[in-house]
Design goal:
The protein is an alpha/beta fold. It has helices at residues 13-37, 54-64, 80-83, 89-93, 110-117, 123-142, 156-168, 178-184, 187-200, 216-237, 270-288, 310-318, 336-339, 345-348, 370-374, 379-398, 412-424, 434-440, 443-457, 472-493, and strands spanning 42-48, 70-74, 101-105, 146-153, 208-212, 297-304, 326-330, 357-361, 401-409, 464-468. It is elongated and about 85 Å long.
Length: 517
């Protein structure tokens, strides 16, 4: 991929000076269109060899464009805060909102390249990371982003010459350190690793643009013109998605599914409930104070039908923990800031650091539930969301996060009873809205969406626990017990790969089918 960047590209001063005013004007106009449309975020990755002009090019873009609508993110060694979260957390937090341009000086490619050069990861592990990066960038593009990846290339001799020129000039000598000279010694390794990585991540939706870094004018003009052409093409294309999405067809010829097979008669008498509640709250308190938990974190995701009892279950769980150790994140309709980002962005920003717990009251599954049923997103959006959600949870688990997911199910009759009760009780009246009543009319559509969600996202390391919630006593104990058993299994295993227990609390039954997950 580097052959075309080793032929001595140059632009003379006269040609450069004639081209720049026109280019600057067009870039500014493109920025205005981006900002007014507020539909397209532009992600620009600046990568390449030391001395190839990465910093100079970023400075040129700030000179040519409106800096108010640019943001530059420089990534080096992760901070302590970043080390305590999944690897991609710091990049998610830095994504530009729709209508703006984000320039990444260093990116999600930097660390895999470094680790492979230093022998910390194998070729197989590098390829696995490359596949994750491809999926991440595909998600950005599907969310409407324009992703431009520039690699600035120099030959080994060219890099050495460039470093000596910088070092000899008093104005730029500070930019060359012993670290740069040491890095020059690894040039051949860098070429081997980077050529392979660029090849396997050179996708149709986010291709690499290799730029020869020898001549400043050539490099600046190439980047500026490429950026302009890409933005103009994206603005012209609008919301058109070229990637096809296969229709999802699901048929249950016998009328049975994971929800219909739940035993909704399960219940616990008050006396048994109080004893079981105290037992599992005590056990949860011990587990989150276990020294082994300091190296892990816990994410609990609560979804369920309206009035299914999520809030009550969360309160019983929270009562067993130190308030300084957990955060409850209520999820409602996205804000204007959140709508300007990919749909998973608002959940990435709330991920807990090691030794802490995040409890989500409603979650990232809204895309395949309420947004799907109510038509708040396109069919293409919610159909690809299953894969994006699985990727998201996989990244959490790989970084040591324990993910526990609950769906609280109640019958239509029980929901109606609770709705009417809420209308009669003053301190519960705020919980019931016209939207809740309207959603009952779409019960069947929601049940279908729930079954699809469970089938497509209940994975080995992040399975769904379906909770029979007609009886609040039974539901709360089952949730607490599931969290405790999952935590205990993970801590005992000493690995993020441990699987959840399938045990359920014993309850009083009044007949019916056995409960299934």
């Amino acid at each position: 991929m580097f052959q075309s960047a080793e032929i001595g590209h140059r632009i003379d001063k006269k040609t450069f000076n004639a081209a720049v005013p026109v280019l600057r004007s067009a870039l500014l106009q493109a920025q205005v269109q981006l900002l007014e449309g507020k539909k397209i975020p532009v992600v620009v990755l600046i990568s390449g060899q030391d001395g190839a002009g990465k910093g100079e090019t970023i400075n040129v873009l700030y000179e040519w464009m409106d800096p108010r609508f640019l943001q530059t993110l420089a990534f080096s060694e992760p901070t302590d805060e970043e080390r305590e979260r999944p690897v991609m957390w710091r990049y998610w937090r830095s994504l530009p909102p729709k209508g703006r341009v984000g320039i990444f000086a260093g990116s999600w490619y930097s660390d895999p390249i470094r680790r492979r050069i230093e022998g910390e990861i194998s070729q197989k592990e590098l390829d696995a990371t490359s596949e994750q990066i491809n999926r991440f960038e595909a998600m950005l593009v599907n969310e409407g982003a324009l992703v431009l990846k520039f690699w600035f290339h120099l030959t080994k001799e060219g890099q050495e010459k460039r470093l000596r020129e910088l070092q000899s000039d008093p104005k730029t000598a500070w930019r060359v350190t012993q670290w740069n000279w040491d890095r020059l010694k690894t040039y051949d390794k860098l070429m081997d690793v980077s050529q392979h990585l660029l090849r396997v991540t050179n996708t149709p939706w986010a291709p690499w643009i290799v730029v020869e870094g020898t001549d400043d004018r050539y490099r600046s003009l190439t980047v500026g013109q490429t950026l302009l052409a890409a933005i103009q093409a994206k603005l012209t294309a609008g919301d058109n998605q070229d990637s096809p999405v296969a229709p999802m067809v699901r048929v249950d010829p016998d009328g049975r599914n994971v929800l219909s097979e739940l035993d909704m008669t399960r219940a616990l008498e008050d006396k048994v409930y109080r004893a079981e509640l105290a037992k599992w709250q005590g056990r949860l308190s011990e587990l989150v104070r276990d020294p082994r938990f300091k190296g892990r974190s816990l994410v609990c995701a609560f979804e369920g039908a309206d009035a299914a009892g999520k809030g009550g279950a969360i309160r019983r769980m929270a009562a067993a923990m130190d308030a300084r150790q957990y955060q409850v994140i209520p999820v409602a309709a996205p804000t204007e800031e959140e709508r300007a980002q990919p749909h998973l962005w608002r959940f990435w920003r709330h991920l807990p650091r090691k030794g802490h717990i995040a409890i989500f009251d409603r979650t990232w599954y809204g895309r395949v539930l309420v947004e799907r049923v109510e038509g708040f997103c396109s069919q293409a959006d919610w159909q690809r969301a299953y894969t994006e959600i699985n990727d998201f949870e996989h990244e959490l688990i790989e970084s040591g996060v324990i993910v526990v997911k609950f769906w609280l199910q109640i019958t239509q009759e029980e929901q109606l009873r609770r709705f009417k009760e809420r209308e009669q009780v003053e301190f519960k009246r705020f919980k019931i809205t016209q939207e809740d009543w309207r959603n009952r009319e779409k019960w069947g559509a929601y049940q279908q969406a729930i079954c699809d969600m469970v089938e497509r996202t209940s994975t080995g390391n992040a399975p769904w626990t379906l909770v029979e919630a007609n009886d609040k006593n039974y539901a709360r104990v089952k949730i607490l017990k599931t969290v405790c058993e999952r935590l205990e299994a993970e801590l005992n295993a000493g690995s993020p790969k441990a699987k959840t227990s399938d045990k359920k609390p014993e309850g009083k039954k009044s007949g019916g089918k056995k409960s299934k997950k």
